[in-house]
Specification:
single chain, 232 residues, Rossmann fold, 2 domains, five-stranded parallel beta sheet, four-stranded antiparallel beta sheet
């Protein structure tokens, strides 16, 4: 198996050195950048498999960099590292093109698991054989979880990593109730109040995505969870 080439952007030099050395000891190939202005030249030269971006950077923040990377490569896995905990900041990260985020402080084990998950999700770099993709037909929509895409006719909506993970759980349990706690543990890793509020935001967004087909409904089971119904 080839080494994962990771572009790591972090302006905290001490933290960056620790993370870089830890990843290199796990057989990652790392290009570390600490200045937002140097990221895009490094991205073009290094051609990474995954990008890990700190949000707070000098000159260009991680959100702006993610948008620039997305303009070049729509499939590049992007993971944000952030000390921010406000829902609007997290959503801003996904809207700028991020696939996932990890709050500081974090464990190396969790960082590595998330990197591998994102790498697997996109099936590797262009030119490699893609993973076999499952698909769900949901009324007039078609959902491709590994591509993080929701199709409606000729329209394709790109989903964030967590949007795709949430929708996959609901699709796997079509017409059966899914417990709220189970969703939080599978998608967010814990059922804290903050993540619970995040889940509410994501459910609202998924409902908006399906609004063109009245036969698709995500029902809230108060105090229990959700029921994803599709009337054919």
């Amino acid at each position: 198996m080839s080494r994962i080439r990771l572009l790591y952007v972090e302006d905290e030099v001490f933290l960056g050195k620790i993370v870089k050395e830890s990843l290199e000891s796990r057989d990652f190939e790392i290009c570390m950048v600490s200045d937002g202005r140097e990221v895009m030249p490094a991205f073009r030269k290094f051609q990474p498999d995954v990008c890990v971006l700190d949000v707070m950077l000098p000159y260009k923040d991680g959100f702006e960099l993610a948008r620039e990377i997305r303009a070049i490569d729509q499939q590049m896995p992007i993971l944000f590292l952030t000390a921010k905990t406000q829902t609007e900041d997290v959503l801003k990260g996904f809207e700028s093109g991020g696939n996932d985020y990890l709050r500081k402080p974090f464990s190396m084990e969790e960082l590595i698991v998330r990197i591998h998950n994102l790498r697997q999700l996109v099936g590797g770099k262009a030119g490699q054989a893609p993973l076999m993709s499952e698909a769900y037909d949901l009324g007039q929509y078609r959902f491709l979880p590994q591509q993080q895409e929701l199709h409606f006719g000729e329209t394709i909506r790109k989903l964030s990593y967590r949007e795709a993970e949430l929708l996959k759980i609901l699709s796997e349990n079509l017409n059966f109730k899914v417990l709220r706690k189970d969703i939080l543990l599978k998608v967010w890793g814990d059922d804290s109040f903050f993540n619970s509020r995040n889940l509410d935001v994501y459910i609202t967004r998924l409902r908006e995505y399906f609004r063109q087909d009245p036969g698709v409904e995500i029902m809230t089971l108060k105090g229990v969870g959700y029921l994803f119904k599709v009337v054919k």
